[in-house]
Specification:
alpha/beta, globular, nine-stranded mixed beta sheet, 12 helices
């Protein structure tokens, strides 16, 4: 694989941020990470979608993350119950039947915010200044696809999309060619690429499988001595071994948390702008992210594709932020 070009983005940017998510173990870590950086990430709301587990459970887990971070003030809006067209699939075999393993799961004190996540996105983005909102997407892209279909004008409020999605050099994690978040709703991923018209950064398996846990990295989190550090360490101890075994890797990836790290310190990552399409046709390639790394198609670049990252820098940044939480 060729050496990727560095991403030219400042490490001091602030973001008016909404996170669309389907928690999931790595999602919860990404959320705790983001909520520990209020001076940089002005988190307006979480929107949830069915993905790793059913919507009721992803919505509960998102509210648990807010509770564990001491941020019950952040509203959580429940969104799409199912993909746009395909039969729903889940990843309970990886994340457990509740979407979280290694920690006790319970009903959090704060209720869901009233209203549907898609309606919230439409209302919020219409009211936002032009190109002002960063939307981080950690699961299937169903909510945004529905919002753009309902109100194409909302794209004007988006500054950028930062997605944990896709795979190219790595190969897939749900089929030989497809990454789960795209495979779970390829029609939504296709619609977002075609309709949003805003800058898109993708952090695919190509990079997340290079940023791996180790016993020492998890031990540093546990040694923080706070509740959040113990929660993250417990989740990783339960979650990482499955992927280590499946892929014969020395550590486990923390996929969605790379999105938070990218927002806070993009210089940890390297990639380049390329043309990307989604294969939504039935067959072996269903849900594949077709990443034209070498420019063979000679089509305009539409995605900033991240291909490499600094693993130790990621864990240093994650640990420093989790240390801030209760």
């Amino acid at each position: 694989m060729p050496q990727p070009h560095p991403v030219d983005t400042a490490d001091t940017a602030t973001h008016t941020l909404v996170i669309d998510t389907d928690p999931g173990a790595d999602d919860v870590i990404a959320l705790l990470f983001a909520m520990a950086a209020p001076e940089r990430l002005k988190l307006q709301a979480l929107t949830t979608v069915a993905g790793n587990v059913q919507l009721a459970k992803t919505s509960r887990n998102a509210r648990l993350a807010c509770e564990w971070a001491g941020r019950p003030d952040i509203p959580v809006y429940a969104g799409a119950l199912r993909p746009l067209k395909r039969t729903p699939i889940y990843a309970a075999n990886i994340h457990g039947k509740e979407g979280l393993t290694g920690v006790d799961v319970y009903e959090p004190a704060a209720p869901l915010a009233e209203g549907h996540a898609v309606d919230y996105l439409v209302r919020m983005l219409r009211a936002a200044p032009e190109k002002s909102v960063t939307l981080a997407m950690l699961g299937p892209q169903t909510n945004l696809a529905l919002a753009l279909e309902q109100a194409p004008d909302i794209a004007r409020g988006l500054r950028e999309l930062v997605l944990m999605a896709g795979a190219h050099f790595n190969g897939g994690n749900i089929t030989p060619t497809a990454e789960f978040n795209v495979f779970a709703d390829p029609h939504a991923a296709e619609a977002v690429l075609l309709r949003s018209g805003v800058p898109i950064t993708m952090l695919p398996l190509d990079v997340t499988h290079k940023i791996l846990t180790s016993e020492a990295r998890i031990a540093r989190l546990r040694a923080l001595g706070n509740r959040a550090g113990a929660i993250v360490a417990d989740i990783l101890d339960a979650y990482a071994p499955q992927e280590m075994k499946h892929y014969d890797m020395p550590g486990g990836p923390v996929h969605d948390a790379t999105v938070t790290a990218y927002l806070l310190q993009p210089s940890l990552f390297k990639g380049k702008r390329i043309h990307v399409e989604i294969d939504s046709r039935e067959g072996m390639g269903f849900g594949q992210t077709v990443a034209d790394w070498y420019g063979s198609l000679r089509r305009p670049a539409n995605v900033n594709w991240i291909a490499d990252g600094d693993a130790q820098g990621f864990f240093d940044l994650l640990t420093a932020h989790i240390a801030r939480l209760p």
